[in-house]
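Deliverable D2.4 — example input (structure tokens):
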């Protein structure tokens, strides 16, 4: 990578959480940019996958896989438990009958694997980035099989793509990203990738710009068309995100504070974009809006979650002090 590219990309990469949060503002404020980017949504998702596998720490991955108990439990929860929990909540609320588009969006969110950025986010917050990466890899590897086996039951025919076809598309995207990402890693070498860390962060942000603008392009017009419905769905998106985060932290609390919070971050960051790309964008309007609104808690979480996790940590320490008194 030449210095004329490395320097601006590294400068962008150093902006970190601020740049990620700014993407949401750009996506909402520039609908024409979103219309230009939307045909490239699947390509942006694939590029994000390749960049993630390019930076995989293979040695750390193998070390965690030697302790499979927690990995197996976390993988089963994020790959099977989360979609089944979302289906149960949607059933209790009667969403399939009252709002099929919202039902579809929520089911795709539940079925999705963790976000590829979850390990980086966990590392930024002082959590176990390697544990996050291992669960991300194992849950993502299961995704085509889970989707092919469960989407017919969970979606109930509301998606215009056959479950097997959806699973095969996911498998092709993931398999191609793994081969290309790990192949580039072998070609370039871990040392060169480590040296270019900030530039790769900047490149990742540029690809995210394509992804976020493609998703957010219709948010402002939809908000203006029905502001009350928009506000309700946005509040629901934050509530689902918080429920996954706090529920997972509580479920794995016996594993220790850092593992539990790491897994909470992984489970709450759902890669809905991968599901939408595999479905070839065949979504009704409400599902597209839900998909867009779910990005708000995800991309604002680098700014919001550290303060929340510090508060949770402080509360846990205070409780321990009270028990010891």
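Example output (designed residues):
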């Amino acid at each position: 990578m030449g210095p004329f590219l490395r320097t601006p990309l590294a400068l962008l990469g150093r902006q970190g959480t601020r740049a990620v949060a700014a993407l949401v503002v750009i996506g909402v404020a520039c609908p024409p940019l979103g219309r230009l980017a939307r045909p490239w949504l699947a390509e942006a998702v694939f590029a994000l996958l390749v960049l993630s596998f390019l930076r995989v720490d293979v040695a750390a991955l193998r070390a965690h896989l030697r302790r499979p108990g927690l990995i197996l439990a976390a993988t089963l929860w994020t790959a099977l438990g989360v979609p089944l929990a979302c289906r149960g909540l949607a059933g209790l609320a009667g969403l399939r009958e009252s709002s099929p588009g919202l039902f579809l969006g929520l089911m795709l969110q539940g079925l999705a694997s963790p976000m590829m950025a979850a390990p980086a986010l966990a590392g930024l917050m002082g959590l176990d980035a390697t544990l996050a990466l291992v669960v991300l890899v194992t849950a993502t590897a299961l995704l085509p099989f889970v989707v092919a086996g469960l989407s017919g039951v969970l979606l109930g025919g509301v998606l215009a793509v056959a479950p097997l076809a959806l699973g095969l598309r996911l498998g092709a995207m993931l398999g191609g990203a793994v081969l290309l990402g790990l192949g580039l890693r072998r070609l370039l070498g871990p040392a060169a990738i480590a040296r270019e860390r900030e530039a790769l962060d900047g490149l990742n942000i540029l690809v995210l710009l394509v992804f976020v603008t493609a998703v957010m392009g219709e948010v402002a017009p939809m908000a203006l068309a029905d502001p009350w419905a928009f506000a309700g769905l946005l509040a629901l998106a934050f509530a689902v995100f918080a429920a996954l985060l706090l529920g997972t932290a509580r479920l794995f609390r016996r594993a220790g504070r850092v593992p539990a919070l790491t897994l909470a971050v992984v489970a709450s960051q759902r890669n809905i974009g991968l599901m939408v790309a595999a479905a070839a964008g065949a979504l009704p309007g409400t599902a597209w809006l839900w998909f867009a609104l779910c990005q708000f808690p995800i991309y604002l979480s680098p700014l919001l979650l550290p303060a929340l996790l510090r508060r949770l940590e402080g509360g846990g320490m205070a409780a321990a002090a009270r028990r010891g008194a």
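The chain is about 85% helix and 0% strand.
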